[in-house]
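Data card: per-record layout.
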Amino acid sequence: MRRIILIALAVVAVAMVAVALQVRNSDRVTDLQSHPLLDEAQLALLAGVEQIELAHGAQQVVLQRDGEAWTVASRDQFPLQRERLAALLLALREARVIEAKTSNAEYHQRLGLTEGEGNDSALRVSIKAADGGFGVLFGNKVGSDQLVRFTDQDQVWLVNRALSMSSNPQDWLDLQVSQIPLEQIATAHWRYSDGEELQLDKASEGDYNFKLTDGEANGHERELNSMVLALADLRAQNVSLRTALQLGEPVLTMQLSSWSGATLEASLYELGGAYWLTIDGLGQSDENPLTVNADPRWAFQLGVAQHDRMVLRHADLKPAEDTAAQPAQN
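The structure for this 330-residue chain is written out next.
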């Protein structure tokens, strides 16, 4: 009986190895049969791309090269998120055709490969370079794969990766205004339009927590740090050209100074119930330069929560009354 069991186990093991080898050989055949979506000429155009247009339905965004930088042309040439652009270019370069599908144009609509303003239309990616260009339509997904075709061809291909890219210009804006570690900041100075001032500093370099220069933090270290971080690590909700706004006088001016001598100056405005911030000055140091978008053309819109963190006053930092020792009221 024991011998029969051992023989059965051996047969099962051999069968499993055979199946594994068959699957592996099948994967190798698939790899050999697949080929890059883009040919050598298209890859060369992609390497020298100067403009990329993404369109889905009625929504469209145009990305434009400006020297070594990239901007969102449809949003006043504001800088775009380089990570998102890199992901798009990588997806195009590494897309591989798994299988040829239909070349009958009558099937394009049901495959999500027609252009138009409907929700069922394809995502069109248009590549434009000095020597020419091409366009690719991305249609229905098939599991983790996706159906595509070139804009000048009827042939449909199944590629090995699905492309999920927004055609909303807002999603491409690089709205990270500043990115300064709190440990790098030595002092902070807030001045309100009514004359009230807050001066913050630290006990020594390397400390994280701020305190009031003329007193202790009174247990409000978290609020003070949050107030400084609201400017030091700021991601805006939106952006606009300053010339398109009537900002008037600021309700608050702010200044940060680093241990290495760098400075950042900014102003906060309230306009029609919305809050806007401008970067007014940036003094860099060679030792630890500050990461800030100090382009004077832009005003950055803040959310309500960001505004509320930024506008603390002395009245908000008073020690809380000790009510624990008071007798309960009947």
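Known properties of this structure: The longest strand covers residues 132-142. The radius of gyration is 29 Å.

See the next section for split statistics.
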